[in-house]
Each structure stands twice: as C-alpha cells, then as structure tokens.
C-alpha cells in the first residue's frame, strides 16, 4: 500500500491551491453576498485544465486520474465551493458521462468544447416531484421518429443559466418504468427551452441554480445517449462517479474551515494565552483533524478504485456520506472556535458552514447514500 502522491499529482494539487488563493479568494465574499456566478474564474479554470481533468486528450481533456481530480476539487472547495460545484458537475456528470457512453459524433460536437471549459454543462435529473425518487420522472421525451419531443420541468439545476449543454433525463415509455427513460443532449437556444427562476440559496450562493422548462423542444435522435431506454442507468452510473466529486467538495469545505480555525487558534488570545493553549480548543482541533483525515482516506479510496476500474459504488457513497457529515461537524466547530468573529462574513467560516449543508443533499441525500451502501452490503 502506497499513500505517497506522485510528482504529477502534487503538481496538480499545488496548481489548484495557487489558483484558489490567487483567483478565487479575492471576491469570494462578495460573490456569495450578491449571488454572482464566478464567470471569469471558471473561464480561467478551463484554461488551466480543471474543467475536463479526466477526459482523454483526444477530446481536449487533461487525461488525468481521479486522484488528481479529487486533489484539485479539495483545494478549490477550501476557498470557493460555488466554483467547485460547477467544476464537479462539468467533470463528473457531464464530461465523464459523455466520454463513457456518448457516440463519437457527440464527443466531437460537445465533449471537446466541454473539456476545455469553452462551454459548461449541466445534468438535469431532479424535478419538482422527483428528487430522491428519481425513477418518477414526469418530463417526457415522446418518440417522433427522427427526434424526441421534450416537455416538462427540471428543478435545482446546477449551472442552470451558465451552461450551454444540458443532459436531460426524460420518460419516453412510462409502461416500461425506469427502462423507458432516456438521456438527451439539449442545447441552450433550442426553441421551446426556457431557463426559469434562479434559486435564492442558503449556501453555494455563487453557483447558478435554476429551474428549466421544456415545451415541445425538438431534440434530434442523434442527441440520445446510449440505446433507447438507457437513460436511468446512465443517470445512476454517472452519479456514482459524481459522488466522488461531491465527497471531495465536502472534504475541501471541512479542510478549509479547519485551516482557518487552526490559524485563528494560534493568534487569538483569551485568559492570557492563545486559544490553542486551552485544552477545550486543542480537543476540538484534534477531533476536526481526525475526521478530515478519515474522510480523505475514504475519498481517495473511492477515487483509487475508480482509477483501477474496480467497483467503486459503495466506496463513493461511503465517501460522500461521511465527508458531508464531517463537513457539518467541522465547519460548525470552526465557527465556534472563532466565537463572535465566526458569525460574521469577513472570517469566511460562516460561509463554509452554510456551503457544507448542500453536500448532504445533492447528488443523492445522506439517506440515499445509506440506501446505496446497504444495498451493496446485502447483495
Ligand atoms: N448504479 C448503477 N445502477 C443503479 C444504481 C447505481 N448506484 N442504483 C440503481 N441502479 C439501477 C438498478 O440496477 C436498476 O436497474 P435494472 O432494473 O436494470 O437492474 C435501476 O437502476 C432501478 O433501480 P431500483 O429499482 O433500485 O430503483 P429505486 O427507485 O428503488 O432506487 C435510487 C434507486 C438509488 C434510490 C435512485 O433513485 C437514486 O439514486 N436516487 C437519488 C437521485 C440523485 O442522486 N439525485 C441527485 C440529482 S443530480 C444533482 O444533484 C446534480 C447537481 O446539480 C449537483
């Protein structure tokens, strides 16, 4: 067993750390307050190769492993989880799904531009009445011969307005239940496709979350991913990988808050000594650091299994379940260590605490992860 990162992985980690500190940190509080999408920063992330890290260089990607991806995700999430969710969806749900299951034509047309960040992708599964219960799709894709007619509404879509390419899950044949579902590539600008209202969120407020409406949108058959009826398996398989991305985001949020709390504990004095000299704070820091290390091991294990082409479904769900839980614990303790300063925006930890919550909800809630894990255990 080797816990040592390679030279390449360390270089990716350092590049992501530098980018996060130099480009994301300035303005992160304002973007959160104003709910402003980090458009210029995402463009630069594309130029630096962070938007299609694992995509084969044939399709303009970085050709990197999943370990490099989670290292970069952790560093970027320490500073700006709004930027990292955009990165995670583009890498894990859109690029990975298209590369694994798309046709050569789809890869040429869409993947090549998504992998460089020239355009951004969105993954559209959730609906007003189908969140965790993902098989209950109400959006319909009626088979019209050479095209599908798409009708319905999608909710809480990350990159909802900033994306140009949308992978939309829809029901074609309800009698076949989940085997009658398709995944279609929809382009912004297709007649009948309207971006709906932007959500006013608790956290990740810089990210761009919208509802989407489709009314008689004609989607060519060439834009279907996989065989007829493959859409649900496509969504589930893609989400298995996506959960590694969100687990690394949760890990980064926790690690970012911990690093701030550690620094503050060395600087702030109370009762004649630094906070770090008080056992009450020492024990908090010890618990936080231990939880972060445990989460990182789970995240790296899931990433490693994926790289080795081994079954990573359970490992990814465990990593997301645990990392998102400790992100709650660690960010709450980081606010506590900062006292009154922790409750105001300037010190960053209150934002990280708000950002942490979503990691227990999207790409499968905590309860869904427990379903996935227990099903794997009882197989
Ligand atoms: N991997 C691969 N296939 C899977 C799977 C998995 N983890 N889980 C289920 N499947 C397959 C099953 O094998 C089955 O296929 P077959 O019939 O061909 O064998 C099919 O899916 C249906 O499975 P179930 O009968 O088990 O379906 P279910 O309704 O009981 O439950 C579920 C499935 C696991 C609960 C699923 O609905 C689920 O994962 N729900 C959560 C959805 C989710 O994560 N939403 C997040 C939205 S995306 C997002 O958040 C992106 C963003 O913007 C950040």
From TrEMBL:
Domain Acyl-CoA oxidase/dehydrogenase middle: residue ranges: 122-217
Limits of the Acyl-CoA dehydrogenase/oxidase C-terminal domain: 231-377
Swiss-Prot/TrEMBL cofactor(s): FAD
Annotated Acyl-CoA dehydrogenase/oxidase N-terminal domain residues: 6-118
UniProt KW Oxidoreductase keyword: yes
Keywords noted in UniProt: FAD, Flavoprotein, Oxidoreductase
InterPro entries, A to Z: Acyl-CoA_DH_CS, Acyl-CoA_Oxase/DH_mid-dom, Acyl-CoA_Oxase/DH_mid-dom_sf, AcylCo_DH-like_C, AcylCo_DH/oxidase_C, AcylCoA_DH/ox_N, AcylCoA_DH/ox_N_sf, AcylCoA_DH/oxidase_NM_dom_sf
CDD domains xrefs: SCAD_SBCAD (cd01158)
One Pfam entry name: Acyl-CoA_dh_1
Family classification: Belongs to the acyl-CoA dehydrogenase family.
UniProt-recorded name of the protein: Acyl-CoA dehydrogenase
Organism listed in the record: Ohtaekwangia kribbensis
Lineage: Bacteria, Pseudomonadati, Bacteroidota, Cytophagia, Cytophagales
């Amino acid at each position: 067993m080797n816990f040592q990162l390679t030279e390449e992985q360390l270089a990716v980690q350092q590049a992501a750390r530098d980018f996060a500190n130099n480009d994301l940190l300035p303005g992160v509080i304002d973007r959160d307050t104003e709910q402003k999408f980090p458009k210029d920063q995402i463009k630069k992330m594309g130029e630096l190769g962070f938007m299609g890290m694992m995509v084969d260089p044939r399709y303009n990607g970085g050709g990197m492993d999943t370990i490099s991806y989670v290292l970069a995700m952790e560093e970027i999430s320490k500073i700006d989880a709004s930027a990292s969710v955009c990165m995670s969806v583009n890498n894990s749900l859109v690029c990975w799904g298209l590369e694994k299951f798309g046709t050569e034509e789809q890869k040429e047309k869409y993947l090549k531009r998504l992998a460089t960040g020239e355009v951004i992708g969105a993954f559209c599964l959730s609906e007003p009445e189908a969140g965790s219960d993902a098989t209950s799709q109400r959006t319909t894709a009626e088979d019209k011969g050479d095209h599908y007619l798409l009708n319905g509404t999608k909710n809480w879509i990350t990159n909802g307005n900033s994306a140009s390419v949308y992978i939309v899950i829809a029901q074609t044949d309800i009698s076949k239940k989940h085997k009658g579902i398709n995944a279609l590539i929809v382009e912004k600008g297709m007649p009948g496709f309207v971006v709906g209202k932007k959500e006013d969120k608790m956290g990740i407020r810089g990210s761009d979350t919208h509802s989407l409406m489709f009314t008689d949108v004609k989607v060519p058959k060439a834009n279907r991913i996989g065989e007829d009826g493959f859409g649900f398996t496509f969504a589930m398989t893609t989400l298995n990988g996506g959960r590694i991305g969100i687990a690394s985001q949760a890990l980064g949020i926790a690690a970012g808050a911990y690093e701030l709390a550690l620094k503050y504990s060395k600087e702030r004095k109370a009762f004649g000594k630094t906070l770090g000299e008080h056992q009450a704070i020492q024990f908090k820091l010890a618990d936080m650091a231990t939880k972060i290390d445990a989460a990182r091991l789970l995240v790296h294990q899931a990433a490693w299994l994926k790289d080795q082409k081994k079954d990573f479904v359970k490992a990814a769900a465990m990593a997301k379940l645990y990392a998102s839980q400790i992100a709650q614990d660690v960010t709450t303790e980081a606010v506590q260590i900062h006292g009154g300063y922790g409750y105001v925006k300037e010190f960053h930890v209150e934002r990280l605490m708000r950002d942490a919550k979503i990691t227990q909800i999207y790409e499968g809630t905590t309860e869904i992860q427990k379903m996935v894990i227990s099903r794997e255990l009882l197989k």
